[in-house]
Design brief:
The structure holds two protein chains of two kinds. Chain A is an alpha+beta fold. Chain A is built from two helices and six strands. Chain A has helices at 16-28, 61-74; strands at 32-38, 49-50, 79-86, 93-101, 109-115, 121-127. Classes of the chains: A alpha+beta, B alpha/beta.
Chain lengths: 138, 297
């Protein structure tokens, strides 16, 4: 199951040239670029691992693309995303976030049902890979 | 020879469209002297223009390496030329952004093990698409301390100069003799720098012309007496230690402005004209410490 989340979740995966163009757009807006990775892509997991510090004061996408490549090389089988942070006072949050790498095989999520009192059913999702310890999931 | 090899190409249009002419003229107009520097800048501009024209007809060559080394005494215009160079290279399409990131040893070299690499890489990332200007680059290498982290910074720099040739231009700057010694102990660095540009000291006349340009930009002017005083000042200041060419002149003018303001302030009560606000008198220059020293000696 292809996991989608973030800004371009409705599109097929971006090519490197497209990623670069997006980064270029973000830098043009004065946003800081950060690269993050994880092997726990549950939609509610907002704490991915940071790959290096966020890059403030960049002028050109080359530096950020370099970091994306290094992250891909270091974690070839994890999810990698690019975040763009807007530090403007009053906003101070992410403006853009999209996945730039995914593992080759994505088993997806199981839907779990929990019977509660009075025939009530609670639903939750759990990644099939989540049984394995961190670092061995994909 | 086929017909296509004979057909004329329009270098002139390319030159005009690129806007390089303006930058070169600005360089000529706003920078006094520096003939060898200007020649080299013009050569580089010509090379890149011709390279662009060659590409339009399918002649391929690897982009030239444009890492440079600026040597010269303080105040000879190294940083200014580096700024112009960045603008020029972006107009010629060699750099994508054309900004200048000026750093010194402190910005590249870390304080403890494992600090240097991320620090240097961050600076490199910031400089991508533009020019990385490393002032007094020889401080990166400290032979007296073999555990100095400077060597690590140099190695990362070398790697970036090689792998990111289309992303960034590195300009090293500093005194000529110390730079030469630096290159002797770092042959890898020397061989990757194609352009060594030496900035000559300014002559007295050139310094006066620079003073005139600076004043014009600040909307001041010298009275005739003050011009004579400044000429004398330049001659005397040159013999003093820590003479920093154009920078010394700028400082002298800043002090003259200070004294002019004091004179106007102390003489308040009368009418002050626009003329008076603009004019620096001989007294303001002659009350400099340098004239005093000569009189007492």
């Amino acid at each position: 199951m292809r996991i989608t989340q973030g800004t371009f979740s409705f599109l097929p995966d971006l090519t490197d040239a497209e990623v670069r163009a997006q980064v270029e757009y973000c830098l043009g807006r004065g946003w800081a670029i950060a690269v993050e990775y994880t092997d726990d892509p549950h939609p509610r997991n907002s704490f991915w691992e940071m790959f290096g510090a966020p890059m403030f004061d960049l002028r050109d996408a080359a530096g950020a693309m370099d970091e994306v490549q290094r992250c891909r090389a270091a974690f070839p089988d994890r999810y990698v995303k690019v975040n763009a942070f807007d530090a403007t006072r009053g906003i101070e949050s992410l403006r853009l976030s999209f996945i730039v790498q995914r593992p080759k095989a994505e088993p997806g999520f199981a839907l779990l049902r929990e019977e509660g009192a009075g025939r009530c059913i609670r639903y939750t999702t759990r990644a099939y890979t989540a049984d394995k310890p961190e670092g061995e999931r994909y | 020879m086929s017909a296509s090899e004979q057909s004329p190409l329009d270098l002139d249009t390319l030159y005009r469209d690129s806007g390089v002419g303006e930058t070169l003229e600005g360089l000529e107009r706003e920078l006094v002297g520096l003939a060898p520097v200007k020649t080299r800048v013009r050569e580089i501009a010509a090379l890149l223009l011709v390279e662009r024209l060659r590409r339009t007809v399918g002649l391929e060559a690897a982009p030239p390496s444009l890492h440079m080394c600026f040597t010269g005494n303080p105040g000879t215009g190294k940083t200014t030329v580096a700024l112009r160079m960045a603008a020029l290279l972006s107009k010629l399409g060699y750099l994508r952004k054309g900004h200048l990131v000026a750093v010194t040893r402190d910005d590249l070299v870390g304080q403890y093990i494992g600090h240097t690499a991320p620090k240097t890489k961050e600076v490199l990332k910031r400089a991508m698409g533009g020019v990385l200007f490393i002032d007094e680059a020889y401080y990166l290498y400290r032979p007296e301390n073999e555990r100095d982290y400077g060597q690590e910074a140099i190695e990362i720099l070398l790697q970036a100069m090689e792998n990111h040739r289309d992303d960034l231009v590195v300009i090293l700057a500093g005194y000529k003799d110390r730079m030469e010694r630096f290159f002797e102990s770092n042959p890898g660095l020397a061989s990757r720098i194609a352009h060594h540009i030496d900035f000559p000291d300014y002559s007295d006349d050139e310094l006066l012309a620079i003073a005139r340009l600076m004043l014009e930009r600040m909307q001041y002017r010298l009275s005739d007496d003050a011009t004579r005083a400044l000429r004398e000042y330049v001659r005397l200041r040159r013999q003093q230690p820590h003479f920093a060419n154009a920078r010394s002149i700028r400082n002298a003018l800043d002090r003259a402005r200070l004294r002019q303001a004091r004179r106007l302030f102390e003489g308040r009560g009368g009418q002050i004209t626009r003329e008076a606000l603009m004019t620096i008198e001989a007294d303001e220059i002659r009350s400099s410490r340098i004239f005093a020293q000569r009189n007492s000696a």
